[in-house]
Write a structure and sequence with these properties.
Elements lengths: L1 H8 L3 H6 L26 E8 L4 E6 L5 E5 L9 E6 L5 E7 L7 E4 L2 E5 L4 E5 L13 E4 L13 E3 L4 E6 L29 E6 L11 E5 L4 E7 L4 E6 L5 H4 L6 H6 L3 E6 L10 E4 L4 E4 L20 E3 L5 E6 L13 E5 L14 E5 L1 E2 L2 E2 L4 E4 L6 H6 L6 E6 L5 E5 L4 E7 L3
Antiparallel strand pairs: 1-28, 2-3, 3-4, 4-5, 6-7, 7-8, 8-9, 10-11, 11-12, 12-13, 14-15, 15-16, 16-19, 17-18, 20-21, 21-22, 22-25, 23-24, 26-27, 27-28
């Protein structure tokens, strides 16, 4: 230890001040679990179980001070839908308190506030200089009265750097049929639910009691978005859409079971105000790399889509359910990861008789604010083993992502409530 301190004393004071204190305080080192928490990772990375929340942990947010907030799908036995985790030793954490008497998915930290969503509203809580909530029982209600029809109801959120809040309002339908998910049922003309769902709405982050009337329908034609994030490099909102289901079940004469398992792709979109991503009138075929007319609206599995719909910027395997998107801006991981995107795939339920897939976190390289190159599986084996994944009976299901102040990557599991942490072991 004396030699380590001597090396730091030879460096300029400004450099010493910028270095991690972990080297001087070994008791604070992040120690990966011996088995890397059961995960398969690229060389040089390690993982540990940070905490067990005991609830269906959805999204997660961290403060600059290292406090973590986890949103639960439903309030726990104590009636709390948000858990505060306090950093402990060895890189682990403990559940210190809970608040927020509502379930939901969205949670984010921005400019001294914690934002959290139920399935109908968005709240914010003031944070103190320790990164802790000052008003747990009296949050400010930022958005209210959002539609909730018990299908695609989660209200995921993201914030930009200009004081705007973005909220996903998922479509309460698979493909806007007259009879939802029923064989042969055609689409409703001029899909009427797009006036209040099936898109991203923009609100002010500091204005109370906003509703549809005071917000802006920022983008339409998105069936459901659970993962979204603001790219600081591109200064733009990116989202991950859950593509439509059951092509074979609804139109068996047009699609066989394998086509139904492989179509449509789960898509990443880079959004601008006024964009239309095309749901329910089209879907994206990741095999042909074409926008296809939906069978409910005159498609036959071969006809390309007509309409002024934007193209995805990247595509991923069908039905794998991308539930979180995070742009990595830290310095712990190697340079290749800087400004790229991590995506948590919750896993499929409807690829049978083909094997189910997903239950992993992937990395999508970016260059100059755009996807560049092929995506790769970054963290795998949340399912427990390949057989459990193929059968759709995983041990854990990745759901939320957050970047810690030191550059660690946090991942939540909404099956058993595990919180994971991934670190890079510098050589």
């Amino acid at each position: 230890m004396k030699n380590a301190v001597s090396r730091y004393l030879l460096l300029p004071a400004a450099v010493v001040g910028s270095l991690s204190l972990f080297a001087l305080r070994p008791e604070e080192r992040v120690v990966p679990d011996a088995d890397n928490a059961g995960l398969k990772l690229p060389a040089g990375f390690g993982a540990l179980v940070v905490a067990e929340t005991g609830g269906r942990a959805r999204h997660i947010a961290t403060t600059p001070e290292g406090t973590m907030f986890v949103k639960l799908n439903r309030p726990n036995a104590s009636g709390n839908g948000i858990l505060m985790l306090r950093p402990g030793t060895g890189g682990k954490a403990e559940v210190a308190s809970g608040f927020g008497k509502y379930g939901g998915t969205g949670i984010a930290v921005k400019n001294g506030y914690l934002y959290a969503s139920s399935d109908q509203e968005v709240f914010r809580y003031k944070l103190d200089d320790k990164g802790q909530v000052t008003n747990p029982d009296k949050p400010e209600k930022i958005v209210t009265g959002l539609i909730n029809r018990r299908q695609h109801e989660s209200k995921s959120i993201a914030l930009d750097n200009d004081g705007n809040l973005y909220v996903n309002i998922g479509a309460y339908s698979n493909s806007c049929q007259e009879r939802d998910r029923q064989r042969g049922s055609l689409g409703r003309p001029n899909c009427p639910m797009l006036d209040s769902a099936g898109g991203i709405w923009q609100f002010r982050a500091d204005k109370l009691n906003q509703s549809y009337g005071s917000g802006t329908r920022y983008v339409t034609g998105l069936r459901n978005v659970v993962g979204l994030d603001w790219s600081p490099q591109a200064n733009q909102l990116f989202v991950m859409q859950h593509g439509r289901d059951q092509l074979h079940d609804i139109f068996p004469a047009m699609y066989d079971t394998k086509q139904s398992a492989e179509l449509p792709a789960e898509c990443m979109y880079a959004l601008k105000k006024g964009d239309n991503a095309g749901w329910p009138y089209m879907y994206y075929d990741g095999l042909q790399k074409k926008k296809m007319q939906a069978p409910e609206y005159g498609g036959d599995g071969k006809k390309e889509a007509t309409g002024n719909f934007i193209d995805p910027v990247a595509a991923y395997p069908a039905h794998t359910a991308p539930n979180a998107l995070l742009f990595y801006t830290g310095t712990m991981f190697p340079e290749k990861y800087r400004n790229g995107a991590f995506i948590a795939f919750h896993g499929s339920w409807n690829r049978a008789p083909e094997p189910q897939k997903g239950y992993y976190v992937v990395f999508q390289p970016f260059k100059d604010g755009k996807p560049s190159g092929d995506w790769e599986v970054f963290a795998d084996n949340f399912a427990g083993d390949a057989a459990k994944a193929a059968a759709g009976r995983p041990d854990h299901k990745p759901c939320g992502l957050a970047q810690g102040p030191d550059g660690s990557l946090y991942i939540t599991d909404d099956k058993k409530g595990t919180v994971y942490r991934i670190v890079y072991n510098k050589k």
